[in-house]
Specification:
Blueprint: H1 3-11, E1 16-19, E2 23-30, E3 33-35, E4 40-42, E5 45-51, H2 60-69, H3 73-92, E6 97-99, E7 103-107, E8 113-117, E9 133-134, H4 143-153, H5 166-215, E10 238-245, H6 248-260, E11 266-270, E12 276-283, H7 286-299, E13 305-308
Helix pairs in contact: 2-3
Length: 312
């Protein structure tokens, strides 16, 4: 049995996967970053860590193995214990344990397990399909400073002339003033236009990214079997989303399917992308919603997610 395969599957759905008698693999979400020197943009991701102190069995790993391999729970737990004993014996002998898609484990001089996480896989499903990229640095020209330098080195001097030319001098002075104001406001208008354009382009890019993430389907082998869950509360701002459908009749079918399984499913309207959202249930508190979400992900739909939205 390759225990790392089951651990990897569960890390997509849970923030903590405990291996009884060995330790726990934890994930922590970090935001997107920009490397200032290389100008490389990195998408958001889940960072892996290992805590040797968390060894109590929470039933998650053994239950998942039992369901996938169609064996009793106690047999699955015994298999995990047997592999843990084998891993510990290799570590004591100075071997490096390699878990595919997770990282490397080694024993240090103090007898503690040191974990080096893998960097080539991202367990954050919200960032599916995103990868890092490098761009050229942006060089901005400050035109105002150049104008000030020119004005300082090239002053405008007006020499008094004959009375008959006074009108011409007035017009010239007005023209200089108009040109100066026109250049200043024109420059501000240009800057504002560029800023507005960038903001609109950014908003459009974000909208497209959000739409792709909402419509994406994350397929993981060994899907969990369906189960029946009865959720009573249908009020509150915390909703467990089962799916979003462009065609409303499909959302109606989804509601009927979920109700047939015992869920208090309903539609909560269309989102900003015009997709009709179907939820398993709604809750008053985040704690209740999070507890129900974990159970639904484990027993029915690993792609269910929590929506915080105040309904009209």
């Amino acid at each position: 049995m390759q225990i790392e395969t089951y651990i990897s599957d569960l890390l997509y759905r849970y923030d903590c996967v405990t291996v009884p008698g060995f330790g726990a693999f934890l994930t922590n979400r970090v935001s997107a970053k920009v490397h200032e020197s290389t100008h490389t943009f990195y998408p958001p991701k889940k960072v892996l860590s290992f805590n040797e102190q968390l060894q109590n069995n929470d039933g998650l790993l053994a239950n998942y193995i039992a369901e996938v391999e169609k064996i009793p729970y106690n047999n699955a737990l015994e298999r995990v214990s047997k592999q843990v004993r084998s891993i510990k014996s290799y570590l004591i002998e100075g071997e490096t344990i390699q878990f595919d898609n997770i990282g490397e484990l080694i024993l240090n001089s103090e007898g503690k397990i040191v974990f080096d996480p893998s960097s080539h896989i991202n367990y954050l499903t919200d960032a599916f399909g995103l990868s890092h990229f490098t761009t050229d640095s942006v060089v901005r020209e400050v035109h105002k400073e150049k104008v000030k330098e020119l004005e300082a080195t090239t002053p405008i001097a007006i020499t008094p002339e004959k009375r008959s030319n006074s009108n011409w001098l007035k017009y010239a002075a007005v023209a200089v003033l108009v040109l100066g104001l026109g250049g200043y406001f024109g420059y501000n208008y240009y800057n504002n236009s560029i800023e507005n354009h960038n903001q609109l382009a950014q908003q459009e890019a974000n909208a497209q990214l959000d739409a792709k993430v909402q419509e994406a389907t994350f397929v993981i082998s060994n899907p969990l079997p369906a189960a029946t869950l009865s959720l009573e509360k249908q009020s509150g701002n915390y909703h467990i989303v089962a799916g979003a459908f462009r065609i409303e009749s499909n959302s109606d079918k989804k509601v009927k399917q979920l109700k047939a399984r015992g869920y208090k499913a309903r539609k909560i309207g269309a989102n900003r992308y015009g997709l009709h959202e179907v939820v398993y249930a709604s809750f008053e508190t985040r704690t209740e919603a999070q507890r129900a979400l974990y159970k639904i992900r484990r027993e029915h739909n690993r792609d269910a997610w929590l929506l915080i939205k105040k309904l009209d």
